[in-house]
Amino acid sequence: MNTPLRRVSLVVMGLIVLLLGQATWVQVVKADEYKANQYNQRVLLDEYSHQRGQISANGEVLAGSVPTNDKLKYLRQYTNGPMYAPITGYYSQIYGSNGIERAEDSILNGSDDKLFVRRISDVITGRAPAGGNVALTIDPKVQQAAYDAMTSKGYTGSVVAIRPQTGEILAMVSTPSYDPNPLASHDGAAQKAAWNALNPNSPDSPLIDRAISNTYPPGSTFKLVSTAAALDAGMVTPDTPVTAAPRITLPDGTTTLENYNGEACGSGATVPLSVAFAKSCNGPFAQLADQLGGDKLKAMATALGMENPSQTIPMPVAESDVGDLSDASALAQSGIGQRDVRMTPLQNAMITATIANGGVPVSPHLVSEIQGSDLSVVDTTSPDRGSRAFSSSTASTLTQLMIGSENGGTGSTSSGKIPGVQLASKTGTAEQGPTPKTSPPHTWYDVFGPVPDPQVAVSVIVEKGGNRGDDATGSSVAGPIGRAVVAAALQQGGR
Asked: pTM for the complete prediction?
């Protein structure tokens, strides 16, 4: 063979090797990734050929599939779509899926290994293949109460309710919401119109699950973390005297930090810590964080679930972050939940639930059971208890401080008291935006009850003052919502 032919042969052989390598890479190495890709329409079309499993809560079907006469043999339908959309997500031929539809896709489409025995049984018996079912921890009554409380006022924000002892998420509301039914339509034009109407690229899009995908400055609700760290370190007790001054100078020597409306915390130079907590004065907790130091504050925040980039419920949860604590002034401002501190509503509910559970965090979860298509139980979720975040005595003291806030402090002005039920709460009014002094604040309300046997922990955020603008406070805006949700969870009647 002459030299030119030899060179051509080598080039051809090289190309064949490259083609074989590419085929191997696509069909073997990347096969699972491509199959799981939400934009893989061939997989979606294949999945439409058999019935997708249902998503349910307490026996109520939230998402199911019904037969059709067109080429896509089943149509996805959502009951009370907007109320549950942040949880169920959507399942669309064009736009893929999100929420539980995406996180539990392998169960719902029947391909998960947990359903292997069922698939074999279908082959043997000749039954039509069908996906498995996902049963959620959501309590429809609690979800309804949270959704109604937010939407009746036209609020933007979120509500999360957790059972403290188990981590079961009883409600997870994000408003404004959307109806996933048009996105599941078999009419491509209808899907596109619905998608464009949701402004998917906007930070205000209803497609954003504000409970787990957005982080916010927690404001004074973060004082729960600062106080827990100081109590657990033995630095303070409820009777420890703290400054009552209406404002303090931060360690940088120039920046001042004032209490809400510039009010003094008491008539004297000092007040007990319990009074400062009930009135949510800023100066004492900024100084407390400075005395604690960044390492101890961050360690407590981490023990309570913050700084975790890989949390899932099973949908991924945005990381809650303490931020930069490199200088004393930043640390002081962070101690009251401002500066760079950012938290999801789910994280805030986790902190409240940990206090209610005596200092032991339990991982929150949405899935109660995995079921076969015949509703037989395939798998159940057991509580995942973490390491103790703080002592039971610290939890008890925090509870008493929160009772003081609820009964005679910032939480006491809220409407919707539940007769005969003792609640423990902490309010938050968080500065936000590029001009925080002139922008309506985010308002928070964290609550659990009843004390001494807590059955539910709730965190509420209403963005940008709700309907009260600059005058908004956590107590006036978020408080009544939190109490309504607790009342529903306890099947009590709020007033």
From this structure: 0.90
